[in-house]
Amino acid sequence: MEKRIFRIKEVDGCTDFQHVTLTIVKREIYLTFDDGIQAGTEEVLALLKEKKVKATFFLTGVHLWYAFSYYPEKAKTILKEIYENHIIGNHSYSHANDHYSSFYRDAGVLIDNQSKRMNVASDFEKCKNQINYYLGLVYNKDFSKIKFPLAKNQKTPLARFPGTNSWYVNDKIKDIKSTDRGHTWELAEKDTKEEAEELFKQGYKIFGWDAEWNMEFDFNKKAIVEEEERKKNKTMDYSKWEISHPFYDMYSKENISNDRVTETWETVRDKLLEKVRDGGLWDDVGKTDGKVVLLMHERAFRNGKVVNKSLDMTNKDEIKKLENLIDYFLKIKAEFKTLENY
What we know:
This protein is α/β, with parallel strands linked by helices.
């Protein structure tokens, strides 16, 4: 978008009118959160409600299962808030148990001790069923026949693959940018092509991201170490999700410092400004000019901090970082949108 304006300049005591063309950069910010429901989802939702900003939540089936198993009433409230005021995306049931290479290259996630796997499409179908089952518990209504996991006013089914930056949105946006190889990202165009095309044909719009608010993934590392130990001791049982993908109390003193962001909000602000101006994450051309999709994880913004060797659950230092980022873009009149409106 261009805007023609006049600039007045004094030249040798005379007034000179000059035409100047300014480029007005459209800024649309798409806040997306992966892996919910989890510790921190409640805090993020409260902030978004206060700021009147909507976001897209890519829910993971196994984390929903934990939430409804460990704190069912709170989980109902959280899921209701997402359903009524935000947008839901499918982020798989198992999250590949954090073994992304085998998930895509070996056709799915291990589900028993005889090397049987559940394929990627079935994993997403299981997540859909899990989301709709819990929505049924919240609303005392049968959601089981609904083909996709959708929020109240949502019409477009959304999905995001775990551990890979894949885009299958329309005929013009089809791309697999990268896949996580044990926390080493590689360009891997073939990894999820077949799976992405299958979900795309089903009706899902598959979104990756342009920028990520980087964080430590301590729980992932801890789970993998524990899994390797169980393999060594021959106590690994892939038929039990709670063993394959362990649950941690993220609000405990032991874990409160884990899985926190490693970048300041100013750094993320600058990344978003750069992306809407210059392009995307892994190549020189952004997906869509003026639009930038930010990937985050709610658990990074949960309340709590160890202060003077004591756990202070009133501490809001982390969620304040997200608040500062949102406030900045509200101030410069950027638009916050959900991926349904991408």
